[in-house]
Amino acid sequence: MPTQRLTGARIREKRLDRGMRQAALADAAGISPSYLNLIEHNRRRIGGKLLGDLARALGVEPSTLTEGADSDLLDQMRAAAALTGDSAEVARAEELAARYPGWSALIAAQARRIVGLETRVQSLQDRMTHDPQLASALHEVISAVTAIRATASILVGQEKLDADWERRFHENIHADSLRLAEHSGALIAYLETPSADNIGPLTPTEEAEAWLAQTGFHLAALETGAADIDDMIGDAGLSASATPILRAYCEGYVRDAQTLPLDDFAAACKAAQYDPARIAQRFGVGFAQVLRRMTTLPLHQGHPPMGLVVCDASGTVRRLKPVPGFTMPRTGGACPLWPVFTAFSRPSQPIRSEVVLPGQVAPRFLCYTIAEPAAALDFEAASVLQSTMLVLPDPEFGPVPPVPVGTSCRICPRAQCNARREMAIVGLVTVDA
Hints:
Helices cover 50% and strands 9% of the residues. It is an alpha+beta fold. Among the domains are: 107 residues, Orthogonal Bundle (434 Repressor (Amino-terminal Domain)); 67 residues; 128 residues, no CATH class. It has a 6-stranded mixed beta sheet.
């Protein structure tokens, strides 16, 4: 309902809030009760002197009756309605927000909380399923419990043990119990981590990417030549294992920046509406290089957030830049329907596709992908392909339905999926694409 058509409803709400009868308000404004009734039911437009007379009679400013609901609150209400699909009356969101702003704000806040909780549950499920640190900790706990149980079974057996062997078995139980307590404490502390911000990097690659995430993957000092790679790596203070990974990233960053200078490249991206094919044609460079370079654009200059996945043909993720709503398991088991994997069947062919994740929110992403040789071709060596995928969140709806994808089979609720490898630990339900 348009904003100007809600003025009457606001007049009625203000009148009822003040306990005024319709006839009393009509008399104060110098109009008939029947005409006021038409106004209050949004069947007559109102403005000018009559609006001022009604506002004075109600003791409010005229703008209070004519201004619509806060635009930010309206956006939040529409986002909350999107969680329920077609069951909410989206067209009447403005009317609800205008008449009951407090309740509308509560609905919007609860919707945000639901989205946050769903995101956290998915993150924790993925962590429980694929985290090598968690798997190692559980293995240590089970190993210690098994050792204690085996030793205890000997001590309680029917066979009489001499004092020396009995002492050794007691010492073994004591040592294994200490080991069990240590690993159990570490496991509890790990599971009680309150937020993802406190989860330390598990591998050298994640350590390097955690440092890059602090810069938004944009290294301004390398753009301008204000610092060299050695200085930047020294200031990062990473471990010896993560340093070569960061160095390789920085060296590639410098090559891309020299080929695609930031100012010209950023202007071309905006002009091409972030279409990497048009940008690659504009500069005469490879498609994958454009995808990598786009993810280094600084967000503070108005560029949209963009994620990146680089993997080899084994499915191992070699580089990952997440964006809100999107991430991918680092230790295998990712959904094979993501374009970054399906691109291996079409080497050197740029691919554009939309994907949608399961859930009430059902985040959508626009993906640009290409799989190509990771190194120069050699007659004596096997060709090693590498797939690069750019991820843009919340694209405009395209003419082709999005591809239903998941994070991994163990936490994907899609019941009907030809790519499913194993049952989900969260319970399968029917999920619309």
